[in-house]
Amino acid sequence: MAFTFFFRDQQVLERVVEHSLPNLAGRSHPRIWDAGVAMGQEPYTLSIMFAERMGHFAFNNLRIDATDVESNGQFARVIEAAQYPKEELERSPEGILEKYFEADGQPGHFRVIDTIRRPIAYQRHDLLSFQEIGHGYSLVLCKNVLLHFRPPERIEVLRMFHRALAPGGFFASEQTQEMPRELASLFQRVIPDVPLFRKVEGGECGS
Ligand SMILES: C[S@@+](CC[C@H](N)C(=O)[O-])C[C@H]1O[C@@H](n2cnc3c(N)ncnc32)[C@H](O)[C@@H]1O
């Protein structure tokens, strides 16, 4: 269930980053919530993608809150160490390994460089608590997680994401994820070929 890898769903993520960038760049302290991150490959991928596209100043103020339900602390330790086996990085686009990873002593392993690690703040969080970790997010990403929930749970989690988003903020998921009909008044699809939705104000949540 924790299967993931660097640059998974690369095309989806690139479109998400491209569309959410103007909203993020317009904020003094842009914040992203990446929910269900497993061992951190996804938030580090996001951090790399934003580093590639954002100005130095804006990127320095970016924060990515990464969360997962895993409870024995293993994910937290891996994300903190930010050290991954070379085989895990082999699907990354050309030049990424050399630019954003460094050898750190353990043979066959590479560590994410500090610039890319800095925006990531990990905490344990259960999406099925239906309690948002904060508010004012410009982007909430929750990929390959909602499919494991029952439809009523999925709806409550999406309502929670709606509350967590800033006005005009974006929600993104994996390619096969549909927005439930019940939430049509809360989220508007941004582009037809990518599961990217913009928060609609004044929906039934009243936020
Ligand atoms: C398949 S991984 C997805 C990783 C990454 N988002 C991706 O798309 O590659 C699913 C992750 O969701 C997490 N997860 C499952 N149930 C959850 C819950 N109730 N709250 C938060 N995370 C959960 C699992 O621990 C796992 O790390």
What does this structure look like?
The chain is α/β, with parallel strands linked by helices. Helices cover 31% and strands 24% of the residues. It contains seven helices and ten strands. The protein has a seven-stranded mixed beta sheet. The radius of gyration is 17 Å and the shape is globular. 38% of the residues are buried. The mean pLDDT is 94. The site of S-adenosylmethionine has 19 residues, from loops.
List keywords for this structure.
207 residues, alpha/beta, 7-stranded mixed beta sheet, 3-stranded antiparallel beta sheet, 31% helix, globular, binds S-adenosylmethionine
Overall strand count: 10
What value does the average pLDDT take?
94
Number of helices: 7
Q: Strand order of the main beta sheet, please?
A: 6-2-1-7-8-10-9
